[in-house]
């Protein structure tokens, strides 16, 4: 990792804006891993990313489907939004075929800790935490890998 960056976001609009900024830097083969407890804004951030990629319709949470795919022309870069919260066994990852999405698209993975050591080393890891005592404020900490060094949108 090249380093860590901390960001603060209070509103849904700010979380969406962070997602949009990440979308502008996104390339095929990228993985964005989102850590955080329930309700911290992982899906909201992803919706901002998808909107910036051109999605005009609703972006449902993949909580029950586990993988929600978006293809061209719906978005300008194919993307799979993955929610591993309900994944019971790390071995179940093989059945999801997530590597296939990285050929010409990207992945956003919620609950990446469920992957264990299988998380890609080039993944951009964002940890989202609710700030104590500050209503609705979230702290985003990013572990920025070398693959993102020259295109990280938050300096």
From TrEMBL:
Protein keywords: ATP-binding, Cytoplasm, Magnesium, Metal-binding, Nucleotide-binding, tRNA processing
Residues in coiled coil: none
GO MF annotation terms: ATP binding; metal ion binding
Keyword Transcription regulation set for record: no
Top-level taxon of origin: Bacteria
Subcellular location: Cytoplasm
Gene Ontology terms describing biological process: tRNA threonylcarbamoyladenosine modification
Gene Ontology cellular-component terms listed: cytoplasm
PANTHER family: TRNA THREONYLCARBAMOYLADENOSINE BIOSYNTHESIS PROTEIN TSAE (PTHR33540:SF2)
Family according to the record: Belongs to the TsaE family.
Name of the featured protein: tRNA threonylcarbamoyladenosine biosynthesis protein TsaE
């Amino acid at each position: 990792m090249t380093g860590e960056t901390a960001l603060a976001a209070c509103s849904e609009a700010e979380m969406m804006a962070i997602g949009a900024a990440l979308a502008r830097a996104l390339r095929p083969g990228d993985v964005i891993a989102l850590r955080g407890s329930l309700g911290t804004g992982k899906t909201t951030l992803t919706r901002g990313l998808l909107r910036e990629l051109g999605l005009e319709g609703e972006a449902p949470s993949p909580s029950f489907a586990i993988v929600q795919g978006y293809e061209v022309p719906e978005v300008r870069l194919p993307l799979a939004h993955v929610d591993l919260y309900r994944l019971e066994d790390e071995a179940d990852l093989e059945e999801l075929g997530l590597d296939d999405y990285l050929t010409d698209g990207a992945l956003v993975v919620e609950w990446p800790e469920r992957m264990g050591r299988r998380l890609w080393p080039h993944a951009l890891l964002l940890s989202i935490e609710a700030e104590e005592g500050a209503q609705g404020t979230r702290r985003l900490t990013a572990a920025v890998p070398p693959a993102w060094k020259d295109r990280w949108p938050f300096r």
